[in-house]
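Subject: sequence -> structure tokens, single chain

Hey, anyone have a minute? Need the predicted structure for the following. Not urgent.
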Amino acid sequence: MKVLIVCSGNKEDFKFEADQVFIYEQMIAVQRIFDVSYEIFLIENSGLKGYYKSIIQLRNKLKRENFDLLHAHYGLSGLVASFQFSVKKIITFHGTDINFWKTNLVSSLAGSLSNRNIFVSEKLSKKSWLKFKAHEIIPCGIDLKRFKIIDKNKAKNQLGLDLEKKYILFCSSFDNVIKNYPLAKSATEKVTIEHTLLELKGYSREEVQLLLCACDALLMTSFSEGSPQIIKEAMACGTPIVSTDVGEVSNIISDTQGCWVCGFDASEISSSLNKALSFEGRTDGRKNIINFDNAVIAEKIHKTYKQVLSRS
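Reply:
Had a minute. Here:
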């Protein structure tokens, strides 16, 4: 089976393995188990004219090469994929393409033209205007062999962090508007336990795993999410978590001791962070996310591929 991935590549110094890491890891997981080969079509243009140009480029590619299936990620990429009718297409919606009404409108148009839609969470599917289309709930998976619990001091040593200090890891870069760093800053300033707040930016996948094992808490203050990967990865590493109640966070965390879901209140978040920084050892969150293992998700993706291809 030959599948063409359609996704955004509109970024300076774009590197697919880093900038679309969760798509890349899903591809690798599927290829590792099943007879599926992938190619990538990157949408490198922005604006209305840019997307029209990408539609033409994609059509021309499909005239030159044969693919069994198109798998687009995010609504705008799905729109590009949907304006061709020679190859069946699937769209995965991740969160930002549904959580805001303008992108929801575009995503719904794209989804109405696709052969099958995938949402990374049930909540996301309910927000979508695509109530009449068949769809699957398939979250992005994580590599449980990579994201595992290791000794905190060992992780700190490898990262060059102070063994005596406590660290809070912010879920993303400080300049990512959706991640709501101002709330994180306000909350951490109220924390009574001495700590250092780290920005999750510019790290390799190996370093992210080390950070999660080295830090005393992961903090997420996002305005909106789908099925956030960093929460699953923190669960796999046994990292205490404090997060706003967005996306699938509550369902992922469930009743895990050492993890707290809060409202958008700096005092409530700071109180939970004090508890997280005082939490002894690692959480047992890993046992609650076995169903997010990449191998499990790969099977669901492959099953969806076969179902779409089998339909006339």
